[in-house]
């Protein structure tokens, strides 16, 4: 990695925007990790095969604070025999991106076990975790509020005290949906935080249609931009209150569809913001110890 230009000697603040952040993408097999990785890389859907080992790609953020930031993403195979290797990839990482199949409730307990094992590893204490709730375009997909309970996220003690700012995105109708920018994210017990039955308007066979039309790896042509489906997250289960300082627990759930790309860049922005807050908190902690 080349030298980083530092202003006012503040390397800690300069590094995230100037250097490359290392992110590990984990999750059970068939969760959609590799599909998400190459959608982020090429901005198009690519046919993939189960990952035996890992894929590594440098992707760039395009939204919010993460715009222009480079992430080196390690996509590690999710088969049971490969999971013991996860720990080798998460050492000294800046963030963990855990992909969950929002429809496969039968394996949710298995996903919870692997997520907890990863997050509670001594090497990963304090590392921000983004839970990517994939396949939100399919019927019966669990919304973030349901996933929070199924994955037992309340059990994670990975504190980061901060206000998180995530990017909003707009549907084709022009209505802002998903997460709002420059607001505070926190957990809400309000009755208004119930899950919507439909979170995406894309057709049920979106996955099958995309696979039939998509090119296969490797890609030798320049990436083409696909038209996004209407991502209509009708209700954000995390109440946004810009006037109240909340306690971010070090994890965040981002609804997404890896095939269409909806929610992926928003997830990167949320993860980047958590990384920034963690570094600032660590810097402040070191100052206080002097």
Structure write-up:
The protein has a single domain (18-179, 242-289), classed as Rossmann fold (3-Layer(aba) Sandwich). Helices cover 26% and strands 15% of the residues. It is built from 7 helices and 8 strands; from the N terminus they run αβαββαβαβαββαβα. Strands 2-3-1-4-5-8 form a 6-stranded mixed β-sheet, sandwiched between helices. It has a two-stranded antiparallel sheet with strand order 6-7. The radius of gyration is 18 Å and the shape is globular. The two termini are 30 Å apart. 43% of the residues are buried.
CATH superfamily: P-loop containing nucleotide triphosphate hydrolases
- Backbone shape: globular
Number of domains: 1
Kindly provide the name of the CATH class. Alpha Beta
Strand order of the largest sheet: 2-3-1-4-5-8
Helix and strand content put the structural class at alpha/beta
Unreliable sequence segments: 1-17, 161-194, 196-247
Please name the CATH architecture: 3-Layer(aba) Sandwich
- The helical percent reads 25-40%
- What is the multimeric organization of the chains shown? single chain
What is the overall pLDDT average?
74
The fraction of residues in strands falls at 5-15%
Could you tell me the number of beta strands?
8
Largest sheet: 6 strands, mixed
What's the gyration radius in Å?
A: 18 Å
Ends distance: 30 Å
H/E element string? Answer: HEHEEHEHEHEEHEH
């Amino acid at each position: 990695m080349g030298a980083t230009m530092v202003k006012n000697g503040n390397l800690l603040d300069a590094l995230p925007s100037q250097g490359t952040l290392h992110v590990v993408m984990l999750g059970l097999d068939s969760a959609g990790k590799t599909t998400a990785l190459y959608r982020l890389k090429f901005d198009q859907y690519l046919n993939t095969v189960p990952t035996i080992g890992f894929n590594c790609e440098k992707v760039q953020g395009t939204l919010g604070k993460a715009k222009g930031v480079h992430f080196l993403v390690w996509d590690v195979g999710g088969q049971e025999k490969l999971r013991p290797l996860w720990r080798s990839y998460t050492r000294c990482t800046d963030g963990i991106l855990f992909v969950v199949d929002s429809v496969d409730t039968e394996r949710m307990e298995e996903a919870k076990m692997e997520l907890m094992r990863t997050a509670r590893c001594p090497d990963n204490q304090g590392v921000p975790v983004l839970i990517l709730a994939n396949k939100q375009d399919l019927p019966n997909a669990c919304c973030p509020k349901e996933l929070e309970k199924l994955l037992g996220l309340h059990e994670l003690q990975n504190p980061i005290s901060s206000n998180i700012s995530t990017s909003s995105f707009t549907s084709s109708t022009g209505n802002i949906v998903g997460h709002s920018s420059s607001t505070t994210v926190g957990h809400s017990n309000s009755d208004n935080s119930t899950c919507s039955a439909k979170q995406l308007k894309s057709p049920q066979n979106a996955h099958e249609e995309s696979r039939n039309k998509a090119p296969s790896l490797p890609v030798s042509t320049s990436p083409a931009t696909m038209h996004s489906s209407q991502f209509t997250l009708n209700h954000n289960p995390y109440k946004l209150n810009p006037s109240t300082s909340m306690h971010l627990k070090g994890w965040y759930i981002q609804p997404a569809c890896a095939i269409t790309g909806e929610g992926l860049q928003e997830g990167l922005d949320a993860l980047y913001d958590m990384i920034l807050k963690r570094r600032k908190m660590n810097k402040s902690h070191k100052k206080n110890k002097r």
